[in-house]
Amino acid sequence: MNEDTPRTDGGTERADGEPSEDVALDPWGSASVGDYADLFAEFGIEAFDDVADDVVDPHYLMRRGVIFGHREYDVVAEAMANDEPFAALSGFMPTGDPHIGHKLVFDELIWHQRRGGDVFGLIADLEAHSARGMSWDEIDEHARSYLLSLLALGFDPEEGELYRQSDNRAVQDLGFELGSKANFSEFEAIYGFDGETNISHMQSVVTQTADILYPQLVDEPKPTVIPVGPDQDPHVRLTRDLATRMRYFKVTEAFASFELDDEERTLVRAAYDALAGGDDPASGDEAGDSDVRCEDAAAWLADYEPPEVDAEAVDLEEAKASALDKLRAGGREPLRPRVRFLDRNATDEAFEALIGAIAGEKRVFEGHVDAFGMTREAAESLAREVEIDHDGFGFRQPSSIYHRFMTGLTGGKMSSSIPASHISLLDDPEDGYDKVRSATTGGRDTAEKQRELGGEADECPVYELYAYLLAGDDDGLATEVYSECVNGERLCGGCKEQAAELMREFLEEHQEKRAEAEELLEDLDIDLDSDRRGTGGEH
User: Fold this and answer.
1) Contact (CB, 8 A) for 91 and 123
2) Which region, left, alpha or beta, applies to residue 369 given φ > 0 means left and ψ of -120 to 50 means alpha?
3) DSSP symbol at 470
4) CA distances (Å), 499 to each of 160, 317, 426, 446, in order?
5) Which domains does the chain possess?
6) 3-state secondary structure of 184
7) Which residues lie across from 253 on neighbouring strands?
8) 317 pLDDT more than 90
9) Beta strands in 127-196 (DSSP E)
10) Kind and range of the H or E run holding 120
11) With bands split at pLDDT 50, 70 and 90, how would you rate the model's confidence at 95?
């Protein structure tokens, strides 16, 4: 293990930080991740370690690195820390029995609920019918099983909401609206859809984007996290784009009459700060009315050397050239920071209301308004307020967190189609015991080599069981198992026996709680006997 740094979460991290192989994310197929660094490089998923310190009393899946990545989770962490509204949602496609991989998501939803979030669990029955060809009778049976396990693990239905896609009219109506902002070419690029893809499958994708935004229809737009495996990231990316496209206004920082992209804006900001001595009209400071002109900023920027950035980042030299062109074209036009409200989808009434709501100095143009003496945060809040008051949605981009795939007990990816590779939450406890006892390990060929070289816990499905499930909130046990394994103090036979016993106990307890949850499920307002007709539409 010279090239990799071992982690006590059952995974490895490349020492050089470089992607190890191609990565494919398919929500309906066999997702493969050669190295989780690939996801950071190729899809813009950020390392969860970057926000971990902002989370108060983090879940053990966060502490052990099982939750490895996120998109904008910092806003959710901030809302939790400040006792402000936030939500969490995840869905379950009822194509088989719930297994220990699904328990990761169940636990993440319940943890967010116990920290004050509005939490939603949905049965993705439209997706199961259109993308997997499941009959409605099969869907009903599996949906019931998923919900029983979620309730048994501690989900509070009085404080949260459970629903089926097919029964939620608000979700379907929202999906219709979101569909007006999507097109086939991006479905083709994101999902690989082609002329053979059935229309219902495409429709189910739009419905999923509506699911993800649904919590923001309840009460008000709020930070919302979607806990998922990385294979579901295509849905998150699409939804974040659609949420932005639905907004009435786009708020940006501007300096003059022309538009800048993010990289150009960084450079122009540097020029302005250097020439104006840091005074900023957006602060409300009258000293911000400087005499800086576009041509002055161009002269300064021409001699400016942008800081070095890594090879994967945007080429700032290219951004510098385009910013210089715009500044020089601006000539003697004053350079003054301001926030700009761009009309994206606003009605005439909403645009006029926005103009009236902006206090202080402003300039009105066809299609946008520039406001001086206003912070970006205040501008975002005002734009959302006006939008909601004029029948818009005011969506925030949803956040997400990503957990590692569990390794199958027989090695490779855990698969519900290979019974020996996974443990169903419905398995007889003795069968669960036997599966763990028969599992592949990261041990050496002989006990002598194990004691001499230590085991490879990072490659061991049994250690993953401890880290992901069996150790629960006991970090000490997870650390002890890892340390004893890699130091050669723990042999695989005893380790598997301990894990098998814990698995049997877990299944016994969980299934007792499932039985207790039967009555609770019967009292919920969710129809588990669908009267729909159809044969499915597998693509």
Assistant:
1) yes
2) beta
3) I
4) 33, 56, 18, 20
5) 249-389 (no CATH), 419-522 (1.10.240.10)
6) helix
7) 339
8) no
9) 160-164
10) strand 118-123
11) confident
